[in-house]
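Before the break, one more example. Copy the sequence into your notebook; we will annotate it together after we see the structure.
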Amino acid sequence: MADGPMTLFGESPEDPFSAAHAALAVVDHRGVVTGWGARTEDLLGHRAEDVIGKPAAGLLVAHRDLDDVARAAADCVRGHGWFGVVPLLHRDGRRVHVGIRARRVTRASAPPEWFLVGADAAEVVQWETDRSVLDGLFRRSPIGMAVHAPDLSVLRVNRAVARIAGIRPEQAVGHRTGDFIVAADAETVEGRLRQVLETGRPMIFTEQSCRLRSDPTHERYVSVSAFRLNDPAGRVLGVTQLVEDVTERHRARLRLALLNEAGTRIGTTLDVATTARELADVLVPELADCASVDLLEPVSRGEEPSQDAFGPVRRCALRCVVPGAEALLHPVGHRIDFPPDSPRARCLTEKRPFLVPHGAGPTGLAAVARERAGDGPDPGIHSLMLVPLVARGLVLGLAVLWRAERPEAFEADDLTLAGEFAARAAVCIDNARRYTRQHQAALSLQWRLLPAEVPDLPAAEVARQYIPAGAAEGVGGDWFDIIPLSGARAAFVVGDVIGHGIDAAATMGRLRTAVHTLAELDLEPEEVLSHLDDLVHRLAAEQEAGSHDFPNDQVTGASCLYAVYDPVSRRCVLARAGHPPPALVTPDGEVTFPDLPAGPPLGLGGLPFEAADLELPEGSVLALFTNGLLQPAAPGTDVDTALARLAGQLRADDRPLPELAKAVVDALLPARPLDDVALLLARTRVLGPERVATWTLPSDPRAASSARNLIAGRLAAWQLDELAFATELVVSELVTNAYRYADGPVTLRLIRGHSLICEVSDTSNTSPHLRRARSTDEGGRGLFLVAQLTERWGTRYEREGKTVWAEQPLPVS
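Here is what the structure looks like once it is written out:
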């Protein structure tokens, strides 16, 4: 079997036909052995003197193998060389398969001879297999291979590496990696190869950028493995590098990683603007150099978008890494109008992403990218795509992405990836939009159920702070109230319905209305809480009966603190139902938390409430709050620590009351509190003897006349003579009624506060009421006259008797 041109000896020490390992023999043209090497004797067992001069066929070949050997010899004669495996006889008679290479040797004026090089057939077959594998790696393998010298110059590359570099294999020999790929990537490659050379530790499947100098804008990634080459003596011969182009796999992995990252980064809150910013942050710089997110105007406000997906958009997010790009683009918050035939309009109406082509005109890339006119620098935008934001069949807006610094243009895969981002973001934006609409409705309800203004009270200066819970928690049922009462008194209320949402806010509104009604009756604080307890108990029973229609609308309880302050007596009566006690700041700055009887929460039913009576110096600050103000500043913080922090903020502070209230919530609350917080501060005032007159009238028919005289004198002293006529009539009617229906003395009190208040107290519990008198009636017109002459009037009951009161506005000075 002809082998073509060949060498007699192998090219490496491992070659079984190398001079160091081969068995050598010479045979003349007659087949007679004329030469015999020492390793041949080792292989076949025959000594040189036993075989030289003898025919090889009779001595070394068995009879049954003569034909095969004869055909091999004929092939050898016809050609100049031959290679094959033949069976030969060992001296001990066994057959030995020997791989033989034969080469004809011709000398002048002498017959030709054959130089034979042999080796054990097993070694020959293994070597030929290894040689075939090596040949396959360099000629046919799809995996790139490069062999580098110790100085990292190229010794040899296979065809796969040559294809990656765009050259022929022989063109790489003697060059360095930096001659073919860009400097930054070449530095990485050679640094890693040098580490393999120095340490001997192989590098396995390491991915790295490999941009060719002939095409530096084309992004390419390769997976590289490398190992050091050593000869049998341990001398370093170089390093071999295995290279595989994994650009598509790398891009696919990056896209998958970006999608996973988008799932965690987009939609972390139920806020439309925040979700839009999260989308822009994911797109830049991983996919684009600049990205803007524009939402249809109704969507940006949390409203339902139009069905035709057309109309102005509001820029909700913008992220760029290109210097000077802001000069081209509208800022966040800007309203953008575009014509119906523009690329943006097409993207919204067709509900599909697309690449904007290069070209001039209003639909070209340059016109779409440059939103604002100006002479700013051209950032070199070369690729742009538009992606709609569509969720549940509704178009919410669009995202605009472009590249300038990154040299690669957008491809179809990029468009698909951006569409995945947009789809995820659109669902999150739609959820946020729906939540925003519901949350704003709940907040609107909540704020409308709370006092719109702080009334100007003669009893106290008042400031309040109300902080709704963070968006994720939803609105709650905390409330506060400041209720003017008769006799220049005031009621201060804070409460908390358990739970969050519309149900809690609605229940809060019902309780607040009930508190106002009960306060108008001038009930004692503990009585007010008892009535509220009954109300909550009834509400819970009603809602339980209708739970099949509204399973989530359940009142589970509430807490409340009710305080009434009288600026004349400086008495403050307080009662609480499962609520934290108030803080009391005396004029000298001492902060205490009065030990009020701890009543049960509202709704338990049947349990009593107790009140505490405090006397407050003028200028004291009473701080009522809900338990949201005491939320821990850090894990493990207890209520006592929170109360200490509150006391520290209230102590010895001479700031105006509104500033103090704001400072307290700023210092104690996080940016997004977990619960609603209501804080009510009241700095007490005192109506001294110069503004209050009190008389005790005897129970006789002349009491009304005496009362008129007393009133006239006091009004003259207060320079309120213009109120004397009406006030005398009112007092005369009230004192007459008290004399007629009550036993015992009558107390007359006149208070000059923000209005003029007349009070007549007696020991009777009979309630006067207004009625329409007939023309034949002798009485029944007194209270009608009182109602016509005063701004308001009423009756309050005390432990012994009642007080009828009436108020008139003071004249404007």
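Residues 412-449 form the longest helix (38 residues). The radius of gyration is 51 Å. Try to locate both features in your own notes.
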